[in-house]
Amino acid sequence: MVQLPPEIYSAIVSYASTRDLLALSRTSKAFQRAAEPKIYECMILRDAESTFLGCHAILARNAFRGPYVRRIFIYQDARRATARNNLSAAPPQFWLVIQHALTKTENLETFCIHDPTISHSWILNHTDFKFQLREATLRLPWDSNTVSFLQTQRKLLILSVADARDDGPLFPLPPGALPMLEVFSGPALVAAELLGSPLKRVQMTTDEETAPLVPTIVADLGKIMKTLRTLSILGLPEEFVLETVHLVATSVLASQLRYLGLLRLPMMREWDLLHRSLMKLSVLVMLEVEVTQWDPAPNEGLQRMILHEFRVFCPSLQQVVFWHSLHRFHWYSRDGQWHCLHTAGRHPANDNQWRIV
After folding, report:
1. Neighbours of 44 (CB within 10 A)
2. How confident is the model at residue 108, as a pLDDT?
């Protein structure tokens, strides 16, 4: 077979899909050398078997493929789960292989791991990690291993973490940690540990135990978080909503917040404080509210009336979203007219509008 210049192989590879890259890499060693950097650039490992094989591929032949890897996603696809092919049943040796592979990925920028058991944070405890992440999604416990690992990630921009376990203390981040962090999604108590980061977008999750602390956390954010542009709070009970919105409106956030949600909207007779708060949110563009608890559910006519009332007090509003159970009614203004886009089968926790406004 006639050998072509390496530039030709690279040019061909640059136009190939992922499936074609795998086929090309098997045709010749020249194509394999050209294709492998793209094949291993993004590794999506959907179950225990693919994770084990993928990590061994990184480690093979003195881990020469390690520098190719920039993004790794490890999770359990429910459609692939069997008794033997399941991350939740994987032995400690399996997680050691993941840890070892990570020590070879010096150019890793995005790391997403969903541990079904939320118990293997120890894989982050290794002194040979050379990468500096830009984005991390960690379904791992917020413990000393996770905190120690995050202290080393000085370039991290986006962080999403799972709920911390309730059987131990919350491990604090030291001052100066995560100096570039702009986006956070996770438990409210963890958000309280990030007041020293230049956050621009925050989504906090709450439960019955942490909900009473949310007003205090928001008050702290409002004192020092001059960079914050979007604030989403999931699961906040109705009795804390008006107080929380009032704290936002009477803080430095009032003149900079562009998105606020997801508010469990109380019945209309209790809106005086909400109206006064909306008047102070001078640049608010989008508001998301939950009306699942309303009986009967507000139809689109009542929704339109409510959004026009909000606009009286907050003229900057351009989008209002009503959530009723898994139904999302997205109202938006175009050419002076309000339009509604209704979608079903969605969940607020999976909606990322707060990240893009």
Report:
1. 14
2. 98
Q: Which two tokens stand for residue 192?
A: 């309280």
End-to-end Cα spacing for the chain: 54
Q: Calculate mean pLDDT across residues 163-169.
A: 58
Q: What is the pTM of this model?
A: 0.91
* 330 token code pair: 């997205």
Instruction: Write the burial class of residue 314 (CB in 10 Å: 0-12 exposed, 13-18 middle, 19+ buried).
Output: buried
Q: For residues 8 and 14, what is the distance between their CA atoms, to the nearest angstrom?
A: 10
- Among 158, 244, 230, smallest CA distance to 194 is for 158
Residue 248 in contact with residue 277, Cβ under 8 Å?
A: yes
- Residues with Cβ < 8 Å from 291, sequence gap 6 or more? 265, 297, 298, 322, 323, 324
Check residue 1 and give its pLDDT: 53
Residue identified by tokens 């020469």 is 64
In terms of DSSP H, where are the helices of the chain? 6-14, 18-25, 29-39, 48-63, 92-102, 144-151, 188-191, 214-224, 238-249, 272-280, 300-313, 353-356
- What is the C-alpha separation between 201 and 194, in angstroms, rounded? 12
DSSP annotation of 155: T
Of the listed ranges 42-56, 161-175, 299-313, 338-352, the least confidently predicted one is: 161-175
Express each pLDDT in 32-69 by its tens digit.
788 888 889 999 999 999 999 999 999 999 999 999 99
- For the chain, give every domain's residue range: 1-39
Residue for token digits 């010749």?
A: 28
